[in-house]
């Protein structure tokens, strides 16, 4: 079995300190490819540097909506330069987070639009972070996302109705361990609607360990096995078939080699 963790933060704190062991455990669990996601200029550089250590590791680069307040024009230009690196396979994460509001909303929207422009120019897929901002996210995508070929909503926890809107727009949906949480019935109903051709898996580690490992404080790619198993059961598919289908989706979305 081959699984791809399409959204992890392997350069963050304790994961970075223990990365060789983290990757060894991941491979043992069948998760043998990773997209490590940068969130600010420093993390973007670290993400690219880390991909040089591991064959099947790739990077996405962007400025998280939390950090949009610090995203200067120069930081955006630097994304363009860093994206020339072969291991950079996507722009993001970018989007809107109206839950925490760490950056002013108009600033988040502006930086999000700039990421979309850049992804279009570079012909790279884009990873969207959208929290309590669904309608506003869709509005910005309609206005600025036309030139972007492939768009994924990461860590999706929206309603079935919202999932349908995302699918109808031609976008992809990625699920974390949140889908396994007891109180996540709405997310499960959404997941049931998403065909494997449009579905991807991620840990978003170090956050949000899936059940039955939710007590593990620092999530890591190996634990994505549990999310895969859970979703295969939800879809009444055999795990190897489900894994093969979503891995094919992820490879084609991020243009990864076979
Ligand atoms: Zn996110
Ligand atoms: Zn993330």
What's this, in brief?
With 258 residues, the chain is of the alpha/beta class. Helices cover 43% and strands 17% of the residues. Residues 7, 9, 37, 93, 204 line the site of one zinc ion (ZN).
Describe this structure in words.
The chain is of the alpha/beta class and 258 residues long. 43% of the residues lie in helices and 17% in strands. It is built from ten helices and eight strands. It has helices at 13-17, 19-28, 41-51, 73-82, 105-122, 134-144, 160-168, 185-193, 224-234, 239-254; strands at 3-8, 31-37, 57-61, 88-97, 126-131, 151-153, 172-175, 199-201. An eight-stranded parallel sheet has the order 1-2-3-4-5-6-7-8. The radius of gyration is 17 Å and the shape is globular. It binds zinc ion (2 copies). The site of one zinc ion has 4 residues, from loops.
What would you call the quaternary organization?
single chain
* Ligand catalogue: zinc ion
Largest β sheet strand count, sense and barrel closure: 8 strands, parallel
Secondary-structure-derived class:
alpha/beta
Q: What's the total number of strands?
A: 8
* Radius of gyration from CA coordinates: 17 Å
Contiguous helical run count: 10
Mean pLDDT rating:
97
- In the predicted model, the low-confidence regions spanning at least 5 consecutive residues are none
- Strands side by side in the biggest sheet: 1-2-3-4-5-6-7-8
Percentage of residues assigned to helices = 40-55%
Q: Helix and strand succession?
A: EHHEHEHEHEHEHEHEHH
Q: Please state the overall shape, judged from the principal axes of the Cα atoms.
A: globular
In whole angstroms, the N-to-C terminal distance is 14 Å
Strand content: 15-25%
């Amino acid at each position: 079995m081959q699984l791809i963790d399409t959204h992890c933060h392997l350069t963050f704190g304790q994961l970075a300190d223990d990365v060789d062991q983290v990757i060894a455990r991941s491979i043992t669990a069948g998760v043998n490819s990773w997209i490590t996601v940068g969130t600010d200029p420093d993390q973007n550089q670290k993400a690219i540097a880390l991909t040089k250590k591991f064959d099947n590791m790739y990077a996405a680069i962007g400025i998280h909506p939390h950090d949009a307040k610090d995203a200067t024009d120069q930081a955006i230009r630097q994304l363009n330069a860093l994206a020339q690196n072969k291991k950079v396979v996507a722009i993001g994460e970018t989007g809107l987070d109206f839950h925490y509001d760490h950056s002013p909303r108009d600033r988040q929207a502006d930086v999000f639009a700039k990421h979309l422009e850049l992804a279009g120019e570079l012909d790279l897929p884009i990873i969207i972070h959208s929290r309590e901002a669904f309608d506003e996210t869709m509005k910005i995508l309609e206005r600025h996302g036309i030139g972007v070929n492939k768009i994924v909503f990461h860590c999706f926890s929206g309603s079935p109705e919202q999932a349908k809107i995302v699918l109808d727009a031609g976008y992809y949906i990625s699920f974390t361990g949140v889908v396994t949480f007891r109180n996540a019935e709405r997310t499960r109903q959404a997941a049931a609607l998403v065909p494997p051709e449009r579905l991807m898996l991620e840990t978003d580690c170090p956050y949000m360990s899936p059940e039955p490992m939710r007590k593990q404080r620092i999530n890591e790619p190996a634990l994505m096995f549990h999310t895969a198993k859970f979703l295969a059961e939800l879809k009444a598919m055999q795990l190897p078939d489900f894994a093969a289908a979503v891995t094919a989706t992820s490879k084609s979305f991020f243009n990864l080699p076979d």
